[in-house]
Amino acid sequence: MKEDKIYIAGHGGLVGSTVLDVFQRRGYSNIITRTSSELDLRNQQEVVSFITAEQPQAIILAAARVGGILANDQYPYQFLYDNLAIQNNVINAAHENDVEQLVFLGSSCIYPRNASQPLKEEYLLTGALEPTNQWYAVAKIAGLKLCEALGKQYGRNYFTLMPTNLYGPRDNFDLETSHVVPAMIRKFHEASENGHQPVRLWGTGRPRREFLFVQDLAEAVLFAYENRLGDSMYNIGTGEDLSIKKLAKIVQQITGHQGDIVWDKSKPDGTPRKLLDVSKIHSEGWHHRTDLKTGLERTYRWFINHRNALKEVTI
Q1: Which of 173, 172, 295 has its CA nearest to residue 237?
Q2: Is 273 one of the annotated binding-site residues?
Q3: Is residue 314 part of a domain?
Q4: Is 11 annotated as a binding residue?
Q5: Is residue 254 part of a domain?
Q6: What is the domain count for the chain?
Q7: Known catalytic residue: 136?
Q8: Domain range holding 219?
Q9: Which residue among the candidates 136, 158, 234, 300 is catalytic per the annotation?
Q10: Which of 106, 116, 162, 209 has the fewest CB atoms within 10 Å distance of its CB?
């Protein structure tokens, strides 16, 4: 298996880069990658030509257009179209070239906004989505169902891992397009550097969220790949959540900020609660290893060491 030729799509992003590290440390040496400038995954012809020429035995599909509430709300077309195009092109090219295994990375935002908690895999498509990220969610649901359809009709071993909210080193810290953890880290750090100014955060702070350190997700991908999991989708998370207000307090403590936190209640909260039921993946033998405070400290250290070279992410 260590000689398998594996294509990691999206190796430059938060998830893909960590997956690449984990697989290489495990001893996988025949890994192929392409940057977005070398291969536009939205271009069907380019993708077909690439997969046909390379003939990988497996694909880890971590490439996606991602962002927080603000980015999803401002760029709905890009979040829907780009992700549909990327998924359709890669998954179909994999099928047409008899790629043996494909791991598709989804998102917990696929679940209905008001579904019972914790979220079980069978809750998919049982209710309305959260409006602020519905565009991304619809795309991810389509990708999941495409893999499921290929399994049902052709017996393909293509399955989906559905991670909860992710954070970690190499995250996107651009305040216009980032998710909650990197946005908080940057806001609290910069406020500390400027005389501990007040930090303004979106919403009420009451919504509850689950957060998974990206290293743990990458190890889940490796686990799923090596164990050739047989079902079509698995939730990947910690099984624990906390309020956004409590998260802010932890990040404030880690960054040393001593000012006030101001909650802008004119901004949306998003889904009231989002906690995954991870009993299915636990029954297969995988469990997360990094507690939230440790993961946040490691992420903050990375931010401090790389803040002068942070890239601004545009849509």
Answers
A1: 295
A2: no
A3: no
A4: yes
A5: yes
A6: 1
A7: yes
A8: 6-309
A9: 136
A10: 116
